């Protein structure tokens, strides 16, 4: 399964919001500057996050965005599904997929279902709070 730029940027946006004090608002311009992501692109990403109830917006000169609930109550899976939809390794496993005519004789279906369960189990087992706490180890420099 390949995750999109939108998925990666959504996670980065949400970690920025999680780093804010509870209730504090963060303008997208600040995220754009710190994460080096186009503000226009962030606007496209924040819309489905708000629709999913993960972020709240406040309009006006002092406005911005904040998490709609604590970071410990939001999973990476919540974020990815908000911007991507179902996280499935093959299209026939999506909730809205048309019935596959080969489903009853597909020898690989069990593999794909297991992979989907592993992916979803992992992303649903990592909270935004945990994601923010993960340390990135620098790669060793080649000499």
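Sequence proposed for the structure above (143 residues):
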């Amino acid at each position: 399964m390949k995750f999109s730029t939108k998925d990666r940027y959504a996670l980065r946006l949400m970690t920025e919001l999680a780093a804010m004090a509870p209730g504090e608002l963060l303008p997208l311009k600040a995220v754009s500057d710190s994460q080096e992501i186009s503000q226009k692109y962030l606007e496209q990403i924040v819309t489905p996050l708000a629709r999913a109830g993960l972020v709240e917006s406040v309009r006006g000169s002092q406005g911005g965005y904040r998490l709609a609930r604590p970071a410990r109550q939001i999973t990476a899976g919540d974020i990815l599904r908000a911007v991507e939809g179902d996280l499935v390794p093959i299209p026939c496993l999506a909730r809205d997929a048309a019935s596959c005519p080969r489903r009853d004789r597909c020898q690989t279906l069990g593999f794909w279902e297991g992979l989907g369960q592993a992916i979803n189990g992992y992303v649903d087992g990592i909270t935004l709070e945990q994601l923010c706490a993960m340390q990135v180890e620098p790669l060793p420099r080649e000499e």
